[in-house]
């Protein structure tokens, strides 16, 4: 398999202590999605949205990469072909584990964005809606993350990678967020081998030819070992 495209979701970071969208008692459970993850919610109450992402940023800063992140970094380093890592996650655990070719389709907690002029800069640990943009000075600071209703980042790179993939692997995703939820079916139709590594079957598990279920820290390293030894 020369070209491997991997999609990761919140499940790969769960064992690092970062709660998933559906965890009971976590940050997401304390807020309605439309209040903290939509442009409309930000327009209504930017302070609430910043408080939410400040908490997520602090949580992510204290997290550490786990064995699944490290295994994917090893795959990238040792695979004789090309590995493209697409993540729906906004943490930087892949990079801290050693992965270099990472596409954050939903943005990053480490980034700030001016919703007035579009300028981007590194985010401080704590941001406020009234923080001035370094470029235009407008008090229009928002997290550089993709909210529901917005277009994911890096689609100009992701779409060709999916088309050329010999293998598509989905790790720790729910299969409910589009366009990523359609990637397995798309790649399968083009002839790629499709693999799901997850704690339990996703909503689109039927789209995968091969499935392995269990904790990410177990199933991902085991899968990487098989690929590298083939």
UniProtKB/TrEMBL annotation:
<feature type="active site" description="Proton acceptor">
    <location>
        <position position="106"/>
    </location>
</feature>
<dbReference type="GO" id="GO:0008270">
    <property type="term" value="F:zinc ion binding"/>
</dbReference>
<dbReference type="InterPro" id="IPR026591">
    <property type="entry name" value="Sirtuin_cat_small_dom_sf"/>
</dbReference>
<dbReference type="GO" id="GO:0005737">
    <property type="term" value="C:cytoplasm"/>
</dbReference>
<dbReference type="InterPro" id="IPR029035">
    <property type="entry name" value="DHS-like_NAD/FAD-binding_dom"/>
</dbReference>
<dbReference type="GO" id="GO:0036055">
    <property type="term" value="F:protein-succinyllysine desuccinylase activity"/>
</dbReference>
<feature type="binding site">
    <location>
        <begin position="88"/>
        <end position="91"/>
    </location>
    <ligand>
        <name>NAD(+)</name>
    </ligand>
</feature>
<dbReference type="InterPro" id="IPR027546">
    <property type="entry name" value="Sirtuin_class_III"/>
</dbReference>
<comment type="function">
    <text>NAD-dependent lysine deacetylase and desuccinylase that specifically removes acetyl and succinyl groups on target proteins. Modulates the activities of several proteins which are inactive in their acylated form.</text>
</comment>
<feature type="binding site">
    <location>
        <begin position="9"/>
        <end position="28"/>
    </location>
    <ligand>
        <name>NAD(+)</name>
    </ligand>
</feature>
<keyword id="KW-0862">Zinc</keyword>
<dbReference type="GO" id="GO:0070403">
    <property type="term" value="F:NAD+ binding"/>
</dbReference>
<dbReference type="InterPro" id="IPR050134">
    <property type="entry name" value="NAD-dep_sirtuin_deacylases"/>
</dbReference>
<keyword id="KW-0479">Metal-binding</keyword>
<dbReference type="GO" id="GO:0036054">
    <property type="term" value="F:protein-malonyllysine demalonylase activity"/>
</dbReference>
<feature type="binding site">
    <location>
        <position position="56"/>
    </location>
    <ligand>
        <name>substrate</name>
    </ligand>
</feature>
<dbReference type="Pfam" id="PF02146">
    <property type="entry name" value="SIR2"/>
</dbReference>
<feature type="binding site">
    <location>
        <begin position="198"/>
        <end position="200"/>
    </location>
    <ligand>
        <name>NAD(+)</name>
    </ligand>
</feature>
<feature type="binding site">
    <location>
        <position position="136"/>
    </location>
    <ligand>
        <name>Zn(2+)</name>
    </ligand>
</feature>
<feature type="domain" description="Deacetylase sirtuin-type">
    <location>
        <begin position="1"/>
        <end position="230"/>
    </location>
</feature>
<feature type="binding site">
    <location>
        <position position="114"/>
    </location>
    <ligand>
        <name>Zn(2+)</name>
    </ligand>
</feature>
<keyword id="KW-0808">Transferase</keyword>
<feature type="binding site">
    <location>
        <position position="133"/>
    </location>
    <ligand>
        <name>Zn(2+)</name>
    </ligand>
</feature>
<dbReference type="InterPro" id="IPR026590">
    <property type="entry name" value="Ssirtuin_cat_dom"/>
</dbReference>
<dbReference type="GO" id="GO:0017136">
    <property type="term" value="F:histone deacetylase activity, NAD-dependent"/>
</dbReference>
<comment type="similarity">
    <text>Belongs to the sirtuin family. Class III subfamily.</text>
</comment>
<feature type="binding site">
    <location>
        <position position="53"/>
    </location>
    <ligand>
        <name>substrate</name>
    </ligand>
</feature>
<dbReference type="InterPro" id="IPR003000">
    <property type="entry name" value="Sirtuin"/>
</dbReference>
<keyword id="KW-0963">Cytoplasm</keyword>
<feature type="binding site">
    <location>
        <position position="216"/>
    </location>
    <ligand>
        <name>NAD(+)</name>
    </ligand>
</feature>
<feature type="binding site">
    <location>
        <position position="117"/>
    </location>
    <ligand>
        <name>Zn(2+)</name>
    </ligand>
</feature>
<keyword id="KW-0520">NAD</keyword>
<feature type="binding site">
    <location>
        <begin position="172"/>
        <end position="174"/>
    </location>
    <ligand>
        <name>NAD(+)</name>
    </ligand>
</feature>
<protein>
    <recommendedName>
        <fullName>NAD-dependent protein deacylase</fullName>
        <ecNumber>2.3.1.286</ecNumber>
    </recommendedName>
</protein>
